[in-house]
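JOB MANIFEST
job_type = single_chain_structure
chain_count = 1
residues = 181
[input]
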Amino acid sequence: MPAHANPVDPPDLGLLPTFRRLLRLWRKEWRLGALGIAFAFCYTLISIAIPLLTQRAIDHSIVNHTQPLWPYILAIVGLATLRFGINFSRRYATARIGIRIEARMRELLYSAYLRFPRAFYDRHATGQVLSRATNDLYPIRYFIGWGVVQVVSSLMMIIGVSIVLISVNARLMLYAGLTIR
């Protein structure tokens, strides 16, 4: 039995060959990927620092009245502004990765379509083939551009919050971990 049912249609690739091809395309954009991950790391650090500053502001300025509140407010607003700029830059970098890889995939796809035999286009409407290919590229673009960096960012946030919880209250960390399970 042949690998695919129709000798005119191209064969379907498995998960591993597809992943290898996508990894080759992603590797070419490693600088933007590294920049996006660095921005994600900074974003995570600032996102963890803001609640810690809020805790200190409440403890030192509101409960004990040992320090003025305005420096804490100024620091929180400054960090929030910096976090906005870093998040914008991270999203821009990851969007550029996705757009560049999508453009390269379109080039590869269209050049492959030119090599298909004429019998392929006798069996399939050209507009439908291009429409399906174009629509299939959108999820790949978002996964490669935004999804990969978002997964790394989420893992960094989980690790960072776990470290803070252990340092603040290990029992609270244990209870929180049990509820997530």
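[summary]
The first helix runs from residue 15 to 27.
DSSP finds six helices and no strands in the chain.
exit_status = 0
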